[in-house]
Amino acid sequence: MARVLETDLARVTADELPRMPDDLSPENVRVRMQTKIAKLCSIAGLMGTVACAAPHAAATHSSLEIEAAPAPRDVFWENLQRQCGEAFSGRLTLEPPGDGMLTGTEELVVHFRACEEEEVRVPFHIEKEVEGIWDRSRTWVFMRHREGLELRHDHRRPDGTEDRRTWYGGFTAGEGTAHRQDFASPERTARAGVPVGWRVEIVPGERYTYGTTHDGDYDWRIDFDLSRPIAEPPPPWGHRIPPTRRPGPP
Fold first, then answer.
1. Does position 196 have pLDDT exceeding 90, yes or no?
2. 77 shares its domain with 53
3. Domain that includes residue 179, residue range
């Protein structure tokens, strides 16, 4: 039976093969066809490899996009810059017992007054109990460094000279988020024995928050409504006199 099948296969192959040169035997033709089939299989395998490589390339491209995403503190910085030139009203929302800085009845104004590539100056104005009397002594100064952000408090007297207690502040503690950054106070932390510092939150078009923190929680806080810009206030005290940038008592 096997011999009959072999004879039939040879007959069919010889009959159905296209006309070839006389020096090619059916066996040689069969070898050539097998070689072509092997090449086609190799090409198919190569195409499969390329197809398999495509998702890998896409994944690599995606990972590059993720790596190129801006750091949270850089987005936070952009959010600060977006408010430049605008002023907003705010209110006291949290204070510890016995704190006498604010009563909660004052008008509070934050003004994103001066914005440079690596520094943003934000005066904080307080209307005293007597209507029309304003305290314009405070300016929050944000600075951007390669290793993180820095917050300083520029305090001035009415004549523009620096207050004894000025330029205190600290650097960001950790990466933070696009909407919140914590600034550590090494001196206050050493005295308290727990993390102490400042927290600033900004949600464009919604809210700007400044406050002090104790062991990770707010213990004093003021909030400003970013959805309603108001008229720009007068300049803060000492705005024409550059700060010496020498820290006073924290």
1. yes
2. no
3. 73-225
The model carries a pTM of: 0.73
Across 37-44, average pLDDT:
51
Give how far the C-alpha of residue 144 lies from the chain's centroid of Cα atoms, to the nearest Å. 13
Q: Give me the count of residues in the chain.
A: 250
Q: Tell me: do 197 and 214 sit in the same domain.
A: yes
- Exposure of 211 in the CB half-sphere (CA atoms within 13 A): 23
Confidence category of residue 84, pLDDT binned at 50, 70, 90: very high
44 and 62 co-located in one domain: yes
